[in-house]
Write a structure and sequence with these properties.
The protein is built from nine helices and 13 strands. With 336 residues, it is of the alpha+beta class. Helix 2 runs parallel beside helix 3 and helix 4 packs across helix 5. The longest helix is centred in the first third of the chain and has 17 residues. The protein is globular. Bound molecules: adenosine-5'-diphosphate (ADP) and magnesium ion (MG).
């Protein structure tokens, strides 16, 4: 099934360009009007609608030294649909507003949209609108719209005393990939392509998040700024303390090749892994494991929630030799 054939000429104007990125048909049944009028129309089908928007600016959120146009498009949409996963929602539509500098060729622009389309196809998303203007800095703003069963949106203020803290995937990979991309001259690393792919084409955990549907209370947050930051957001919103075991924070087997200081910084503060951090009542933990199995998602129990006592709104790390330390709320600012 091919929704579009992206062929771009060298001298297209804005309208020809929109025509090129427009899908030949739409897959979402709730769409009433897609691209081609002043706005798109969706007919609500009894579920809750979840929507989010993000902006990506060249040299602030990404650099052409480490990201090809295809990756820029892919990752921009991945970051957006990861926000919907963190709500337990399934994305259905996206709109793209782009500011295009003169120095970007039509070809490169088409590659940005191809990157988005690859991910959109994988998750049955329809592109239903946007805006195209010229300007100084390449800027991409994506709005994503999705659905979640009524009252099943996963808020970050729902963590409670005794909850289990879990995380999907492995952490620090994206930052390790960036390190490899930025230091091409230095020694060769093991599994370079793995880390680079995790940086350029992360996997938002959409299927896992929606497989949690049968659980009444789950807290979710996606790891865009590092687990230290995301855990603190849950702790603050829920008025709880979050305790994590350092040796249980999942990392890739080759992660230990990097220097110990970097490992620590990257896994806690690296960000852009787009894994899901969550809390769930201990009784429902088997259901979470089940959802992970069904969706082929790596899952680890990494800590617990305390609501009575000290450190409300804070995150603590327990080291292997049982020293407890406070984990500061800071994230890597993804400048290049
Ligand atoms: P208007 O003048 O009503 O804002 P535009 O000329 O900006 O219309 O856009 C025409 C149609 O093309 C609209 O449906 C709009 O949503 C869509 N569109 C424009 N730019 C993009 C884009 N970058 N991605 C997807 N759809 C776009
Ligand atoms: Mg417009």
């Amino acid at each position: 099934m091919i929704k579009y054939l992206l062929k771009v000429d060298i001298n297209m104007d804005e309208f020809q360009f929109i025509n090129k990125i427009k899908q030949d048909f739409y897959v979402q049944p709730s769409l009433h009007k897609g691209i081609g009028d002043d706005a798109a129309v969706i007919r609500e089908n009894g579920q809750d609608i979840v929507t989010a928007v993000d902006i990506f600016v060249e040299n602030i959120h990404f650099s052409r030294q480490t990201m090809q146009p295809f990756h820029i498009g892919y990752k921009a949409l991945a970051a957006n649909i990861s926000d919907l996963a963190a709500m337990g929602a399934t994305p259905a539509y996206y709109l793209v507003a782009v500011v295009i500098p003169k120095k970007w060729s039509e070809m490169e622009l088409a590659e940005i949209f191809s990157g988005m389309q690859l991910l959109a196809d994988r998750h049955n998303l329809d592109l239903i609108g946007g805006d195209t203007v010229s300007g100084n800095e390449l800027t991409i703003s994506i709005t994503v719209i999705g659905y979640v069963n009524k009252d099943k949106a996963r808020y970050r203020n729902q963590a409670k005393d005794g909850d289990i803290v879990f995380v999907t995937g492995t952490l620090g990979d994206s930052r390790a990939g960036l390190h490899i991309l930025e230091n091409p001259q230095t020694c060769k690393y093991k599994d370079e392509q793995y880390f680079i792919k995790r940086h350029q084409q992360p996997t938002p955990r959409i299927h896992f998040a929606s497989a949690l549907n049968n659980i009444s209370r789950v807290t979710l947050n996606d790891i865009s700024d590092g687990i230290a930051n995301e855990a603190a957001e849950i702790a603050e919103a829920s008025n709880v303390a979050i305790h994590l075991y350092d040796e249980k924070i999942p990392v890739h087997p080759s992660f230990k090749q990097f220097n110990p200081y970097d490992q620590y910084q990257w896994k806690y503060f690296g960000g852009e892994d787009f894994e899901l951090l969550g809390t769930v009542p201990a009784d429902d933990w088997p259901k979470v494991k089940n959802s992970a199995q069904q969706t082929n998602t790596k899952l680890n129990k990494i800590g617990y929630v305390l609501a009575n006592g000290q450190g409300i709104g804070k995150v603590y790390i327990h080291s292997a030799n049982n020293v407890t330390s406070f984990l500061p709320k800071k994230g890597y600012t993804h400048l290049k």
